[in-house]
Amino acid sequence: MTGTVYDLTFDEASLFADIVSRLTSLGSVEIRETIFPDILRLMRSEALASFIWNPKSNSYHDPFVINQSLDNIKAYRSWYQYRDPMTRQLRSLWRPAYVDEVICRSDLRKTEFFNDFLMKDGLDHGINLFLKVGGRELADLRIWRTNRQPDFADREIGLLKVLSPLLTRALSASPDITLSVLTERERDVALLVSRGCSDKDIGRVLNIGFATVRTHISRCLCKIGCSNRAELAAYVTRLSQ
User: Fold this and answer.
1) Measured between alpha carbons, how far is 118 from 63 in angstroms, rounded to an integer?
2) Are 2 and 162 in contact (CB under 8 A)?
């Protein structure tokens, strides 16, 4: 782990140690539901949203939120995510980042996104973390403060830098990550791989050529973040249990 962590109260230091312990424990499940609320406390912030990117629909889905209106989140999914002036740039960084890094606050406050979406929940300034393993995007972490709270600083960036690799590892193994990133045919191939079928068997069952089977398997490995066929089979099997 890298990064410098400082300015923690005794209770926060205990909470941080507990988060790290749970993230490094085998069998961690429901990471967003069990870990993200504590991260929000550690970040001394009021609101949090987390989505999972769906490459098939080219949109964010499966929201998990704390202290944000569900109606507002519904509006984000149907309208505001397509008028979001900063998330694409923040996502491309793949590291903890202030929203201010990609759009200055004065410009953000002029946008429909700020006035008709963020301000409905009183959100003023944020810090985001987007995670991926291999070619597979994992759940993101969007933390916000109201205008009554101080700006985010090195403290929060440092905490997220330390937690980032642990979150990546835990989320990539979590059963709440599904096969939704795969196309229907890729999913068929992945399921057959998990059942021990050879490439020749898969081609015969799906009536596709050997080269096409290999292409689908390569795409599955990339999207899910597995390094080989055995890892892909184990991953699909775990989801099916």
Assistant:
1) 16
2) yes
Burial class (CB in 10 A: 0-12, 13-18, 19+), 130: buried
Structural domain count, the chain: 2
Contacts for 6 with CB less than 8 Å, ≥ 6 apart: 155, 158
Alpha helices by DSSP H, the chain: 10-24, 31-42, 70-78, 87-93, 105-108, 112, 154-173, 184-194, 199-206, 210-224, 229-240
Average pLDDT over every residue of 101-115: 96
Q: Please say which residue of 146, 173, 200 terminates a domain.
A: 173
Residue reference for tokens 């990539």:
172
Alpha-carbon distance of 7 to 196, in angstroms, equals 52
Q: What is the CB neighbour count within 10 angstroms for residue 209? A: 11
Residue found under tokens 């972490």: 141
pLDDT tens digits, 188-229: 999 999 999 999 999 999 999 999 999 999 988 877 777 789
| Domain shared by 39 and 125, yes or no | yes
pLDDT digits (tens, 9 = 90+) for 125-152: 999 999 988 777 889 999 999 999 999 9
pLDDT at 159 over 80: yes
Residue 46 DSSP class: S
Residue 145 CB coordination number (10 Å): 21
How much is the pLDDT for 240? Answer: 63
**Cα 171 to Cα 163: distance, rounded to the nearest angstrom:** 12
Range of the domain at 236: 184-240
pTM strictly above 0.85 = no
